[in-house]
Amino acid sequence: MSYKLVCIDMDGTLLNNKKKISSYNKEMLQKAHDKGVHIVITTGRIFNNALHYSNLLGVKSPVIATNGAIIREKDKGVVIYKNALSTETCLRLLELSQKSGVKMHFYTTDRIFASSRLHGVALKLFMSLPLPKDLRLKIRYVGKKEEWEEVFNHHKDEFVKCIVFSPSRSTLKNFRKELAAFDDISITSSGSNNVEILNKDVSKGKAVEVLANYYGISRDEIMCIGDNENDIPMIKYAGLGVAVSNGIKELKDVADYITDTNDRDGVGKAIEKFIISK
């Protein structure tokens, strides 16, 4: 099979445990790109952050960000797809988070609003400052309910993701149960300490489908690589779903192929095997 679209998760997949793209992974992806394959960063991260890593690869394909809530061209700024949370839903999520004692962030394409001052500082240090100046994020701490209401109304139809954090797995488990009362959201996770909330029907799998239709590419011509719960929909959708061997069991169980770990160039090895060597 000749693959025309490769969608790759970032954290735990393309990036090693030092949050770097290895030279081998970059080389294999550039070779695939030179063969005409669309190389698409497909991540739960905010758009500007994902765009930076796509730029590091030297590819021109669009970026799928915030778990599929937005697909955007890199150079033209054209939004191919966007599915945002409603203002009403954001307010309900805020109320539930305050009742549950969890911390939360709300994402637009280039802004993060955090309910914790400490989280706000960490976001600036680890997510914003490492980016080039023109891609740095606007990060703001918001405390009072009245301030949140103002934020939600001012940025209506811009919030594409809410992510909730807690060090307690039982707290997050209970929070997910409470979310069952919402009929207009989808729920996923990118780690044991978080729950990610998107608008209904949003997933990486749906975004891959939208982008494939945009390019006129069939499922059989798609390869997706990931490691965590939020990658399962695209691994299931792809003609070839690849899990890195450090991925969670649930993802590896539905994958067509298991490559090496993110620290041992699993992405590059899969690209070489299924695209470069063909």
TrEMBL record:
Q: Does the keyword Ligase apply?
A: no
Keyword Hydrolase included in the entry's annotation: yes
Taxonomy, superkingdom: Bacteria
Q: Name one GO cellular component term.
A: cytosol
Query: What's one Pfam family the UniProt record gives for this protein?
Result: Hydrolase_3
List the NCBIfam families hit by this protein, alphabetically. Cof-subfamily, HAD-SF-IIB
Name of the protein in its database record: Cof-type HAD-IIB family hydrolase
Its source organism is Clostridium manihotivorum
